[in-house]
Amino acid sequence: MSLSILQGFSKSLAMTVLSEIGDKTFFAAAILAMRHPRRYVLAGCLSALIVMTILSAAVGWAAPNLISRTLTKHIATILFLGFGLWSIWDAFHEGRESEELAEVEAELDADLKASSGTNRGNDKADDDAKKKKSRPFFAQFFSPIFLKAFSITFFGEWGDKSQLATIGLAAAENPLGVVLGGILGQALCQTAAVFGGKSLATQISEKFIALSGGILFIVFGIQSFFSTVE
């Protein structure tokens, strides 16, 4: 593994873990896993985040080919410093974690009520379970639960701070390393959310995570500012 890939990998891994732990999609995965089979939830959430990571890295890789590398460097520097200050502000903004968890729970509860309302009066749970067992493996993976987890995670992550940070990181570092580090980081976070459940999500110190992420972003911003354009 070349030095540039290793550097992009390590930065992306650290950034992803500190950005995603305690994030809205982290809570969503934890709550969904309490209501549905874990393998479908994990597959759906992780697939969405892998697609998002690859798309974000592709945009970051294309940016230096569309605009000058000097301007790309300045944009990346501003993004990192801005996200760093944003994360530090979040760290000292009390009640953010509980509000975010309550918001996710309310959204999922509303969705659950809507879906149960449409299915009320149908006594086909056992038949559906039998049909699921007889389905091919590939068809089982694209179950409504998988699609629900995928869509909630994908659209919840779209335009999020971590997505924009991945774009900036891929513009400044080796895109392959950024993708590999991002995927590993997403896999670690989503696995912890799905198998740790809501109890893990509520025990995490949001202040510590946000503060650590903010410091990391600022370090990336300073490094980007003093880096030379090739």
TrEMBL record:
* Top-rank taxon: Eukaryota
Protein's name in the database: Uncharacterized protein
Species classification = Eukaryota, Viridiplantae, Streptophyta, Embryophyta, Tracheophyta
